[in-house]
Amino acid sequence: MKVKEIAEIIEKVCPKRLAYDWDNVGLLCGDAEKDVKRVFVTLDTNIATVKEAADKGADMIVSHHPILLGGIKRIDYGTAEGQMIKLLVENNIPVYAAHTNMDTARGGINDRLAKLFKLTNVKILEQHTDDASAGLGRIGHLKNKTTLGEFAHECGEILNTTVRAAGDLNTVISTVAVASGSCSEVIPLAAAKGADVIVTGDMKYHNTIDMTQLGICVIDAGHYPTEICVMDIFEDILSGADVEVVKSENRDVFNFVM
């Protein structure tokens, strides 16, 4: 298959029009006409994952987090980004990214999180396009009520991570919002829609105080743990394609030390 054909398969699930205006999605580096037999799927594209892709004989990288997001004016091999681009070009590995369009799409990361937490009556938290089936975050109900302390413990087990919970641990939880990655901006909306708790990542101290004063509990489960499921999603999307899919060993940049 060609790079452009793989891109078309992915975009049937998460079309580029679902991405936010500030984002950088699609084919970001490489030849759309290149033939591909092995696709390397990853959460992050960086020096380590590009080297891993090359070592595993990948013909293409499909990533959630994009490269060149901030825009660059020069490719300096003395920088990490410059070294990464040099590796991509030397190894002839195109990079395709599905970022906020994968966050917002039906069947994307936030739907997967809602499924992992076994939420019912799931609805979109924030719709940002005219597509009523897509949007940022999800909100739904637990089958059985629980407490924040119990839910936080379960959240850590489901996402295989250490979580931080803000709020009274005895608060009764029945309505849950999920927003993958770094999504503190949607917490007021989650509170307004009746969520007892939101699961997201990258929370700041003072911002968390402000958010909990809205009456909603907050679980910071981290950026990586709330998005690493994207590799499984990419694998599912490409399961019918005539390519081999190889998952990255992409690890969280943080180590938890007690």
How would you characterize the largest beta sheet?
Answer: 6 strands, mixed
Biggest sheet strand order reads: 5-6-8-9-10-7
Order of helices and strands: HEEHEHEHHEEHEEHEHEHHE
In what range is the share of β-strand residues? 15-25%
What is the correct CATH architecture of the largest domain?
A: 3-Layer(aba) Sandwich
User: What is the helical fraction, as a range of percent?
Assistant: 25-40%
Distance between the termini: 47 Å
What class, by secondary structure content?
Answer: alpha/beta
Put simply, the count of helices is: 10
Shape: globular
Structurally, the number of domains stands at: 2
Rg over alpha carbons? 19 Å
For the record, what is the CATH homologous superfamily label of the largest domain? Answer: NIF3 (NGG1p interacting factor 3)-like
Can you identify the CATH class of the largest domain?
Alpha Beta
What is the number of E strands? Answer: 11
Q: Report the CATH topology name of the largest domain.
A: Udp-n-acetylmuramoylalanyl-d-glutamate--2,6- Diaminopimelate Ligase, Chain: A, domain 1
Task: Please describe the topology of this protein.
Layout: H1 3-13, E1 26-29, E2 38-42, H2 47-55, E3 60-63, H3 80-90, E4 95-97, H4 100-104, H5 109-116, E5 120-126, E6 136-147, H6 148-159, E7 164-166, E8 172-182, H7 187-192, E9 197-201, H8 205-212, E10 217-220, H9 223-227, H10 230-237, E11 244-247
Parallel strand pairs: 2-3, 2-11, 3-4, 8-9, 9-10
Antiparallel strand pairs: 1-4, 5-6, 6-8, 7-10
